[in-house]
Amino acid sequence: MKKDIIVYEDDNIIVCNKPVGMPSQSDRTFEQDLVSYVLTHRTEQNEPAYAAIINRLDKPVGGLVLFAKNKKAAAGLSAVSGEHGIEKNYYALVKGSPCDKGEFTDYLLKDGKNNISTVTDKDTKGSKKAVLLYEKLGEKTIDGEKYSLMRVRLLTGRHHQIRVQFSHHGYPLYGDIKYNSDFRNRRDVSPALFAYHLSFKNPVGADRITVEAEPESEIFRL
Predict the structure, then answer these.
(1) How far apart are CA 67 and CA 50, in angstroms?
(2) pLDDT (0 to 100) of residue 24
(3) What is the CATH number of domain 82-190?
(4) Any idea which architecture 1-80+199-221 has in CATH?
(5) Number of helical (H) and strand (E) elements in the chain, helices listed first
(6) Model pTM score
(7) Would you say residue 170 has pLDDT above 90?
(8) CA distance between the termini of the chain
(9) Which of 28, 66, 76, 116 allows an S-S link to 54, with CB 3.0 to 4.6 Å?
(10) Do residues 79 and 71 make contact, with C-beta atoms less than 8 angstroms apart?
(11) What are phi and psi of 219, to 5 degrees?
(12) Where in the chain is the domain with CATH 3.30.2350.10?
């Protein structure tokens, strides 16, 4: 296991750079998950085996995940998270050429049985409002197709939100086997999505903590 998974730690929080393919939490595959990794780290440091996960990433997505090391920090982070006080920014490589800056506002409906979400009408029972902001950083060509590297800020945290919304608006993510028909039958790719930035109020102090990480994959290079 990579030793640089933990990229920030203090007395109250841990921030990890989750590898692509690692589950955020235990699933039915019996693979090591990020929560178990953090708990093992804490016990090795002779600390209490407590790790409350604050934000989660899909298994095929890499990037920053925040943990609280005690109940006070967990309560503080959960409170600001509910008010959208945790700033979450991503890199996404999408097919096509969206405008330089913009916003998507949609209503998403989660299908838990099939592990997908779809854009629906706001009056649909169970639908939830999903909002994100985006900015284009540049363009590149892969196998004759134009792709755009986007900086995305989530204003809500819905299931598969970035993947679903960009696909719905005509700009599916590179490597997304669920929402990009170009990759529907591929098993050797993962969505070109990386959570590179977290910023939030210190749950037990007055300062603001910002953590960033850079993706290793060359797919994000322009």
Answers:
(1) 9
(2) 94
(3) 3.30.2350.10
(4) 2-Layer Sandwich (3.30)
(5) 3, 11
(6) 0.93
(7) yes
(8) 29
(9) 66
(10) no
(11) -60, -25
(12) 1-80+199-221, 82-190
What is the average pLDDT score of the chain?
93
Q: What is the pLDDT of residue 15?
A: 98
The two structure tokens encoding residue 83: 């008010």
Contact 21, 59 (CB under 8 A): yes
Tokens of 36: 């178990």
**Contact assessment for residue 49 and residue 62, using Cβ atoms and an 8 Å cutoff:** no
Type of residue at 187: R
The tens digit of pLDDT for each residue in 96-147 reads 999 999 999 999 999 999 999 999 999 999 999 999 999 999 999 999 999 9
> Which residues are paired to 6 by β-bridges?
16
Identity of the residue numbered 199: S
Give the span between the Cα atoms of 129 and 157, in whole angstroms: 9
| Residue 140 β-bridge partners | 147
Give CA–CA dist 46/66, Å, rounded: 21
Pair of tokens at residue 183: 């990759």
Q: Which amino acid is at 61?
A: V
